[in-house]
Write a structure and sequence with these properties.
By secondary structure, the protein is mainly alpha-helical. About 55% of the residues lie in helices and about 0% in strands.
Length: about 240
Amino acid sequence: MKPTLVGSLKFSHIPQMGFLQNPQIHNRQHPSTVTCGLRGGTRKPLWRSRVLSTEAIQAVHSLKLANSNSKLHHVFSTRLSRLLKADLLDTLAELQRQNEFHLALKVFEFLRKEEWYKSDLSLYCDMIQLLGKNRMIEMAEQLFGEVEKDGLKPDTRAFTEMIGAYLQVGMIERAMETYERLKASACSPDKLTFTILIRNLENAGKEELAAVLKKDCIEYLEDPQRFFKDVQQKHPKRQQLDLV
């Protein structure tokens, strides 16, 4: 039996689906210069390789127009329940692209109950990234915790998305704790992990912590000097990143 996010994420089971009430969005005070995005826009899932079908477009449109629980349930029962697997996945990806995180969460929960669903870590990572972008940190944490309950183990990207979520709201200590968890696992930090952390730590004035990360680059990256050179070229306004 598939584990459910409904209890942990505090919204009701389908068919009693409803919009999240007064979602808690973090507005924690943190330096305005802190950034964690390195990607040029929303990353497309690996399984998405075609344009949206008419059915998927209509499903997205109907979900966005549903302004009550009853209307939302009607859309799920009359449209989403009839979608093919590829169209349902495309519907989720399009809602993520449009930053409709409330609806994306509901569609994610819905598809996890489908008979064809198999645990997919990339889907979790996409949702954690979306929640982090919207500063829904508690939800991102709970979703991260659901990964293992779904028979999966967090990989480098999953840890990195959670690190990025914490940095969105200036939770540097939690970001570093997650980084240490990553290193203690069977995974290793990669270039994206280091770039996100080093850039944000330096922007936040945490030079000592950034220096620790730079030293770790020597251990985990094949060519740390080349890595720092590449980062400098992509972000010329940053001070030169030298190994310490």
